[in-house]
Amino acid sequence: MARNVGDEEMTLGMLSAEKANGLDEEAQRHTDDEGDVDGQTANSTQDKPKLRNLFFDDGKRRIDFILAWTIDHKRPETARQARQVFEENLIKEGLELEYDTRGRDVNFVKVHAPFDVLKRYADILKLRMPMKMILAEQHMKEKYSDWEEDDFGLIVNRTRTSNNNVASKTPLPSVGARLWNNTIQLVRKFMVPFHYDETVLPTVSRSYSCPYSSSREYLFEIPENKDEYFSKAIRSWIVDYILRRQSFNVSNSKTFSFGIKKMLSDGFYSAAYPLHEGHWKAGSANNARKVLFDHWANWTNCLKFQPIDYIRFYFGEKIALYFAWLGFYTLMLVPATVVGLAVFFYGLGIMSTNIASKELCDPHNNITMCPLCDARCPYWKLSDACSHAKASRIFDNGATVFFAIFMSLWGTLFLEFWKRKEATIQYKWDLTTFVQEEEPPRPEYLSKLENWQIFKMNPVTGIQEPHLPFWKRRFPIFLASYSIMLFLAAIAVTAVIGVIAYRVSMLAALQLIPQHVSSNSTVVATTAGLIYENASLVTTVTAALINLAIIIILNVIYGHLAFWLTDWECLRTQSEYDNSITIKLFALQFVNYFCSIFYIAFFKGQFVGRPGKYRTIFGGRQEECEAGGCLIELCIQLAIIMVGKQLIQNNFIEIVVPKLIKLVKRKCSKETREQKLAKTPWEKDYILAPAESMSLFYEYLEMVLQFGFLTIFCAAFPLAPLFALLNNIVEIRVDANKFTTHLRRPLAEKSANIGIWYSVLYGISRIAIISNAFIIALTSEFIPRLVYTSRYSPDESLSGYINFTMAYFNTSDFAPSDRPKDIHLGVISMCRYKDFRNPPWEDPEYRRSTAFWHVLAARLAFVVVFENVVVVITSLISWLIPDVPTILKEQIHREAYITNEIVLKTELRRAQGEDLNSLGGAHLSDENLRYSPHHSEDIELKKRSPSTGKSKSGSQIYI
């Protein structure tokens, strides 16, 4: 099983600021943590803040992990014995322990992994470690003397002419290649203001690596202080690997009494975590955590790129990959925002100049509309819907189709470019050959089945594990679980029906305003008249706000029930559990958020019927679209739910609530300043919130739902990318701040991709194509306008379009109980309604007209053409854009070949008795020794100087 891990070069970048302040490693080892509480620093003899104590009491052995426990009053002897056995097994494994039992409530075990243990597990797990640069240098001089790295990190062949000493590239780059390179350089220059400070965080480049072997140490650059060879992230990861495999039971009666996760689940330990490198507040000593806060998590960096490599060094690949994906997604929103704003301003420009809008707003047309409800609602003038119709034209115009096609292509390009970006990250972080290890059973799974009598051998580990028969045990539970899920989804649908009933009744109530408003109060009459004129808008907005409140409440309920159902299913591994909870929560929240939007987009106004013969549900008329159409209502609903979700969940819950909780805790705390200063680093980290495995899940879920808002309904709301961009700029810093300041340091887990979320994003992008096709065809007025101008308009303009879309109804055909009681407009013999039907003087009356079938055929044809064209184009784009860049494929093959050649030649020289120790001493940052080809990510990191290939600070870090 191959494992790919980075090196300790984080120290070179992170501690450069510390060295600049005169804080060396020796000082770090022998200072305590007094100046590390809430940004307060203790005055030392040199008036410098002290670094956090990360070592045992001897000041030499580094603390790699902390185990904490509280006294278990229910079973103290059982817990003590389990801890004793577990810790004895850790010592047998080679780990070194030191105890801190001074606390009254919480006790701690400090864990240190000696170099021999780290070396042994690096060999077992085949961790990829950097090779000596001097070996690569010698091989490159022999094999690739005419090859070197160009300004873009790519390898080119340079030959020298016989007449002069000027280098020239061979072969000569094509015009397209030169144009592309010039474009990249221009983009890089434009992006310079958005880069982070390279003087603090130097550019990270890649070096050759191969699986570590203790028998071939001469291949690797091992420093004089061997404890510094493995990075802190690797050290904690190896310790966690050991902790997860040690038994805590004396007898073998309980086969599955092993692992730190099981002990945490049983309550024998209360926490297990690696330490943060120091404090993050102003005035604290410089450390890796503070550097990340100052140059990444701080709000002053909200428009800066992220130092992804340094995030990886501190938090590990899994968390760094999330932030890399979020940053890439946010960057891709920029072109979508520009196009969306262009479409919006185009709509604003044509809002008042549109011929159809002018006809609708012209009171001289004197078009009297049929009542919006039976009996109580009066007749009304079409010109009353003028403002509604004008607002609708902002979003319902020809540019809507272009924007829908653009966003469909944008979604595909985003996913395709992310795959390429992900491949580059995998290569740079040595994840191309990463294989997930065989997962042990979940502690909760083993606890539930502790007395289970049916066992089955695991084909991988060979261990007898509790087994749940599928048809007798699992199938009934799954059936019940997903039946409950369908019921929960039905609750969301029921809530939407309730909101529909509110809209119908609210609109009917507002129609009665002219009958009940007294003319004695001018203010009341004016306000009531304003509400009456915008009755549809008022109803839509209030209904959307009510729907948003219901969505937030249901989300809380869904979250608890989804976890309860997944726990009930008793899944064996953590990945099975994570996938199951992902499906449940995403499905429930998808229905919850999008149910009302789907109703407005595809069902409202489609099956209303006609005056005198309306279709009813539970005795009431169905909702119908206003004269301006349903698209504006869809836009309002989408905007309120999307923006409201971001403001309430993303900003209030994630920013305001934690600050309020922290403020309350601080006010309620009775600790004095001296007591806070006296706390050890492990005590301070213990009181932080635990970094749970589901932390990233909710972040991904939040962004995936946002992606759904952007793509599935983009035709109705071109400003969605703008709001998403603004939200994500804030979201990156909120998440960064949370991981840096509010949570314990998470374990540096490894992950080669974003997992199941890519499949979810791909499915959403496919749904979006169908959704936008039907929104344009059914909800917008684009197709009827197109049919009118091409088939019915005498001058191929929209003149007369409003009259074309209005059918006639003879008011004498109303049933006596349905006739309006309000006759303030006088006696009306003929009213109009929005539909394509025959007038009452034609036979057969009120039947679908020929125009209706023309429009319907055009709508269906548009859906078929739109879907097929977009699907073909997106599929062609996916086929044309390779998942892995061609140059990266060549780089991977070249590195594999060169690495193998280095190993073979070095082994040969060793067999011939050559002293390989004489090859040591090459410093990684020595630019003169850098001949190996590297694939850099200068767009994501920093632009190098074209002449030297170095960062602006003149320094680089190799991994």
From TrEMBL:
The keyword Transmembrane applies. Keywords: Cell membrane, Glycoprotein, Membrane, Transmembrane, Transmembrane helix. It is found in: Cell membrane; Membrane. Its main location: membrane. Residues 55-308 form the Anoctamin dimerisation domain. InterPro entries: Anoct_dimer, Anoctamin, Anoctamin_TM. The gene is LOC106068237. Signal peptide: none annotated. PANTHER family: ANOCTAMIN. The chain crosses the membrane at residues 319-348, 399-418, 477-501, 544-565, 585-603, 704-726, 756-778, 856-881. It is a multi-pass membrane protein. The keyword Membrane applies. Belongs to the anoctamin family. One of its GO terms (molecular function) is protein dimerization activity. Residues 946-959 have a biased composition (Polar residues). GO terms for cellular component: plasma membrane. It comes from the Eukaryota. Residues 311-895 form the Anoctamin transmembrane domain. Residues 1-48, 935-959 are annotated as: Disordered. This is Anoctamin.
